[in-house]
Amino acid sequence: MLQLKNILTIHPFYKKRIKRLQQTKTFITSVDKLSENALLFTGKSDTGHTIEIEIHRDSTGKFSINSPVKVFCDCHSFKFEFAHTLFRAGALRNKLSFIRSIIQRPKKKNPNLIVGVCKHVISLANQIKPKISNFN
Fold it and tell me: What DSSP string describes 36-48?
């Protein structure tokens, strides 16, 4: 399963997008306790995209950068490049929103089937990282 530490940086295949990532602004809008073992961080980007990162306790029973995550973003990059591979990796939230993307391989946008996330998810994950230990 995907871990928080895996979504803190952009995959090397997409290194040309680093400048756009650095310009992306997101903020946490809410934190909900889904269960004793799971939190849901919801955020918004400066361009109005909704982002969700569901974090589960790691193998030591704590929330950390090693915690398994499931992610969602409503941007086109997430839908057409990453939803398919995230679904296959067991890390996709709101699967019903991506039925077509799950079924069809992203031949043009992600031909190597790289498990990655959009710039909005990376940006929000980096805001969560310094705060995550507060929830233990």
Answer: TTEEEEEEEETTS
Whether pTM exceeds 0.85 = yes
Q: What is the dihedral of CA 6, 12, 14, 17, to 10 degrees?
A: 90
Contact 48, 24 (CB under 8 A): no
Task: Specify whether the CB–CB gap between 96 and 104 falls below 8 A.
Answer: no
Both tokens of residue 92?
A: 């996709």
Q: 85-111 burial string, b = 16+ CB within 10 Å, else e?
A: bbbeeebbbeeeebeebbeeebeeebe
In angstroms, the Cα distances linking 26 to 9, 68, 71, 84 are 15, 21, 15, 24
Token match 């992306």: residue? Answer: 24
> Any idea what DSSP says for residue 90?
T
If you ran DSSP here, which 8-state letter would residue 113 be given?
Answer: -
Instruction: Give pLDDT tens digits for 79-129.
Output: 999 999 999 999 999 987 888 778 878 877 888 888 999 999 999 999 999
